[in-house]
C-alpha cells in the first residue's frame, strides 16, 4: 500500500471516528408538556377592560386543549413535533347586542384595545419550568365583518429555549387569520429540537464533566485510526533510515 493511500485511509478513519464521537452528543431528547393555556391582557374579557359594556368587548374566545394530550416522543436534532394547542374563535355580536343579524356585526374602535394574548407552555422535560410564554401581535380591522377581507389576525413570535449544556429547542405557533364572522380555527404549536445537550462524563471515570461520553464502538474506531497513523509514522522513519 502506498504512503498516499495510507494517509487517505488514516484521514478517513479519523473523520469517521469524529462523527461517531459527535453522535454521542446528538442523542434524542424527550419532551413532556404538562400544561398549556392562553393568557389575555384583561383576564377573561377581551377587547377592552372589564368595566366597559359587553358590547365593547371583541367577540374572540381562546380555548386550550387538555395538557395530557401533549405527551411527546423523543426528538433528534432537527426534528419537529406539532400538536393542537387549542382553538380560537371569532363570534362578534351585532351593534345591537344580537348575533342573529350577521350584517349588523362590526368591529368598533372601542373593541380594538387591550388585544394582547400570550400562549403558555409548562414543561416537565427536558426543562422543569414555570410557564414559558409566547406573545402575539394582534390586529383587529375596523368595520363590517361581512366582506371577504381579513377582519382579525394573530401573528405569533417564535421563541428559543436553552436547557442543559448546550441544548436548545424552539417553540412556535401557527399564525391565524379570520376573514368572516362565526369562524373557529384550530391553533397548532410546534416544538423543534435545535441542538442536544452535551452529556457529562460519569464521575467515576476520571472525567471532569462537560464532554460527550464515547460509545465502545466509537473508541474502537478512534483507536483504529490512531493505529494506522502510528503505522504511517513508523514506515516513514524506516524509509528515512
From TrEMBL:
The keyword Hydrolase does not apply. Transmembrane segments: none annotated. It holds the Pfam family PEP-CTERM. Keywords: Signal. Residues 212-236 form the Ice-binding protein C-terminal domain. The keyword Nucleotidyltransferase does not apply. InterPro entries: Ice-binding_C. It comes from the Bacteria. Residues 1-26 form the signal peptide. This is PEP-CTERM sorting domain-containing protein. It comes from Azohydromonas lata. The lineage of its organism: Bacteria, Pseudomonadati, Pseudomonadota, Betaproteobacteria, Burkholderiales.
Amino acid at each position: 500500500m502506498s504512503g498516499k493511500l495510507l494517509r487517505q485511509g488514516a484521514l478517513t478513519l479519523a473523520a469517521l471516528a469524529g462523527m461517531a464521537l459527535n453522535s454521542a452528543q446528538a442523542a434524542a431528547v424527550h419532551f413532556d408538556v404538562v400544561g398549556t393555556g392562553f393568557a389575555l391582557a384583561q383576564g377573561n374579557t377581551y377587547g377592552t377592560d372589564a368595566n366597559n359594556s359587553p358590547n365593547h368587548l371583541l367577540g374572540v374566545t381562546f380555548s386550550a386543549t387538555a395538557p395530557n394530550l401533549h405527551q411527546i416522543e423523543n426528538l433528534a436534532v432537527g426534528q419537529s413535533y406539532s400538536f393542537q394547542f387549542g382553538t380560537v374563535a371569532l363570534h362578534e355580536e351585532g351593534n345591537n347586542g344580537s348575533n342573529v343579524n350577521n350584517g349588523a356585526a362590526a368591529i368598533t374602535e372601542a373593541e380594538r384595545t387591550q388585544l394582547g394574548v400570550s400562549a403558555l407552555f409548562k414543561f416537565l422535560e427536558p426543562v422543569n419550568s414555570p410557564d414559558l410564554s409566547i406573545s402575539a401581535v394582534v390586529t383587529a380591522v375596523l368595520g363590517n365583518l361581512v366582506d371577504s377581507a381579513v377582519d382579525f389576525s394573530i401573528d405569533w413570535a417564535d421563541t428559543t429555549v436553552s436547557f442543559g449544556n448546550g441544548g436548545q429547542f424552539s417553540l412556535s405557533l401557527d399564525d391565524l387569520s379570520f376573514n368572516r364572522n362565526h369562524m373557529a380555527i384550530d391553533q397548532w404549536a410546534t416544538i423543534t429540537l435545535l441542538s442536544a445537550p452535551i452529556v457529562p462524563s460519569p464521575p467515576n471515570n476520571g472525567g471532569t464533566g462537560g464532554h460527550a461520553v464515547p460509545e465502545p464502538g466509537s473508541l474502537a474506531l478512534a483507536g483504529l485510526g490512531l493505529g494506522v497513523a502510528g503505522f504511517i509514522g513508523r514506515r516513514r522513519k524506516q524509509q528515512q533510515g
